[in-house]
Amino acid sequence: MYAFEYQRAKSVADAAAALSKSGGKALAGGQSLVGAMKLRLANPGTVVDLSGIGELKGIKKEGDAIVIGAMTTHAEVASSAAVKQTIPALAALAEGIGDRQVRNRGTLGGALANNDPAADYPAAVLGLNATVHTNKRKIAADDFFKGMYETALGADEIITAVSFPAPKKAAYLKFPQPASRFALVGVFVAQTAGGVRVAVTGAASQVHRAKAIEDALAKSFTADAAKKVKVAADRLNNDLHGSAEYRAHLVSVLAGRAVAATS
């Protein structure tokens, strides 16, 4: 690990100022950043700890949406009565992230800011058409994810909360990589006020929407309709864990199972 300066922020404004001045990195749960620093894959120079900022924590219901603070842990989302009642698919997704240690340290905001291409939360944000709130603006899900480990966030921009609209129906299914529990392929299917949305994680360099499956489900919201869609493999990951063709097959299969799970 390279040497770095540690700062513990007392407020969002304090954290933003520290990031702007130092050009460092914000520390949420630390499940990705600390590991990268230990391996010398990251050298932030300054680490700004967000754990002491109370306003970034908590879960509340606002109208037909669930608003979750950026520093809320996966375990808190998984056990939340409000989330279970309003968006049970989101609670189930959080329960399946990593292991118990990761779920009790990792945070929603940290996972989204890191934007690992095989992470679970990005699929929920994109699938539910959520809105990412920052200290500067609100970012629609379709505009937030920009590429592998890349987002629309500015250097001193901090996620403060995420607003998840309650869907009519939703489910998330993933085929986990046994060692890491990250998604080899994960599919979030939702019937929303704006139509059917299908978000895929793990299969490509970033989370993305499966438009062909969305179109099929818009005509017939059935498991068979999803499974019959032949997903193109040309832009999907091809590695020792699974070929691009295998991942393409999994997308349709998991989408079908997710649809079946919503009924």
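^ that was protein a. below is b, sequence first then the tokens
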Amino acid sequence: MNHFRFNTLFGDCTALFAGMILTLAFAPFSLFPLAVIAPAIFLATLLSISPKRAFWRGWLFGVGLFGTGVYWVFISIHYFGHASILLSLLITGLFIAILALFPAANGYLLNHYFPYNGNRKILCAFPALWVLLEWFRSWIGTGFPWLTLGDSQINSPLKGFAPVFSVYGVSLIVLICSGLLVNAYRHRRNKKILSLHLLSILAIF
């Protein structure tokens, strides 16, 4: 049963919005709770839709995240590389579109191989795929390790996990919290399960 009601347009816009607000989790804003909330919203938009639609929503999420998070690429190309505004916009837009393919792949693979909305999908597959794709993004070609989710936690209690589990381990922990948040909402009518999930997030932090 789908506990979230995201019709086509609303779900698409919600995924885009979730990507945009995730940027605020990073410096200089450092609103680190958004690193849990934004992926949880994104995950909620992926539940009970086709893999093709999940790919599209993942791409929109990526456009929101990288569109607001890598604007400095335009500044580098235009002001320091002395390229024209049009060329700088074109290169930056293409760069954002390519980076957005990573969360798009997350959405597609998640719903293709895990079509049922259970704990395995929400608490295991979603975090694992995200971190795997983060790692892949960090070294493919020349690599682009910016906006790795774990980096958003340098001012949060989760920073203590970094020396032990690395930045990718922190990303995984954050995403498990996102999954717990989604599950808490899915089981909001069951106060015992709701409390268990929320207390688990609190315990992790």
